[in-house]
Amino acid sequence: MSDTQHAASLRDTDADDGRSWWLLPHLHDGLGDRYLSFGESVGMVERLHVRDALATRPDFADAVRQGIRDLADLRSPWLAMMEIVEPGTSGSLDLMSEHCTMRLAEVQTDDAPTALAVLEQLLCAAAVLHAAGPDVAHGAIDATRVGLSAEGHIRLLEPAFGSAIAALAAGGESVWGAAAPIR
Hints:
This protein is globular. With 183 residues, the chain is α+β, with helices and mostly antiparallel strands. Helix content is 33%, strand content 24%. α3 runs antiparallel to α5 (162-170).
């Protein structure tokens, strides 16, 4: 399915519940394609369409769903919450999460105090995840999965992929690739 067809299917699915959605291609990496979305009832969110090669694997999709359930009751200013969006297309997996103003990968600084402040916040975020339980881990922390608010506070993005990525790694597979804007 092309990006345009996929965006149209997401918009059509959500139209049934009376909300309007606008989708704008945002980023692409080894997990899939991300779209910035605006819905009347929820404001700006980020939607991730997990690439089909992963979404159609029951072990991966089940692990992502379990990761979201494991984190459902965990509320922290350091974590961007996620939920499953069922777009109605068999075998697809779409997730919706909070949108951050920018990602750490978009920031360059030579200022050591700023870098240390970001690192301190990142360590706090990781500690919140690790305190949630022995099976909870992010599994994909990098500069593209650390969001920054307009106030400069960090949030770990996509925290529910840990066990799914670990399962792939145990089988010698990887989802990694450089994040890039969708063109």
